[in-house]
Amino acid sequence: MTPPERDPLSLPNPSPQFGRYAPSPSGRLHVGNLRTALVAWLTARSSDRGFLVRIEDLDPDRSHTAVADQQLEDLASIGLDWDTEPIHQSERDNAYSGALARLDAAGLVYPCWCTRAELASAAPHDPQRPYAGKCRGLNDAERAERQARANRPPSLRVSLGDVEVSWNDLLMGSQSGVSSDPVVRRADGVFAYHLAVVVDDAAQNVDQVVRGDDLSDSVPTQAALYDALGLPRPTWGHVPLVVESDGTRLAKRERSVTLARWGDDGTALAKLGASLGLCGPEDSDVTAADLRTNFHLASVPREPWVLDRPF
Ligand code: GLU
């Protein structure tokens, strides 16, 4: 399939279209990440889409080339394939600058000097902390005063307003939420997640975003960002996370449940497939293509998968 790179801000979207998996290379993938990647691959392949992997290495302090290489190796080792060379977000500043310029020309970009402490105190009970708008709508004098007081460069936010967004999630059904003003460029000049993911998915013709359900809260803001950029929204599907038997979420940290600890003996794909009801956990000969034959989105469990639960 032809690599889909194109100008993200041009319309309309040519086919073919893609699903994707887009890990941040901050730590080795755990089995929950691999299971989500498998569902993304199965959903894309069984809907006649291409499939991409993208390296989301925006944050220089938390991204490691060796980790990205290991992630690709782990994805390939459970039988996933992708149709084009993975792109790296760390090499995409031109695309993000272009999108930022478009938002700026529409009068939507504003500087924000809020500190972490200010953000936390504005929304102490909300872990997602929708931006309360302290730096939105400041006049020139107020900006100069904030700048003098902060004595450091501002981050940049996009004014999206509090837009009520509803979407039909491929896995979770009817959902809704309210957008917030995202940071699109951090104070240190690094472009931020919401802008990069929207620009890249549009640039790569990704019209089907299947990912972990810890990211479903970001849909309203990303939907509003697609709208602000004049880009068509994709379809979203959020896969329930994997939890340990005591209910804690897996995280990409040391001692997490990675392939090295869980399925290096070639049993990982069967165990992941079994968790999706697609094969037995002992079917050590099963291939990703076999799972694809049996796959139906409707049969993906809607509950978190408890690891170590006996099959
Ligand atoms: N890079 C994000 C992560 O590793 C995923 C972003 C997305 O799928 O939208 O959690």
UniProtKB/TrEMBL annotation:
One of its GO terms (cellular component) is cytosol. One of its GO terms (molecular function) is ATP binding. Residues 20-285 form the Glutamyl/glutaminyl-tRNA synthetase class Ib catalytic domain. This is Unannotated protein. NCBIfam families: PRK05710.1-3, PRK05710.1-4, queuosine_YadB. The lineage of its organism: unclassified sequences, metagenomes, ecological metagenomes. InterPro entries: aa-tRNA-synth_I_CS, Glu-Q_tRNA(Asp)_Synthase, Glu/Gln-tRNA-synth, Glu/Gln-tRNA-synth_Ib_cat-dom, GluQ/Sye, Rossmann-like_a/b/a_fold. Residues 1-26 are annotated as: Disordered.
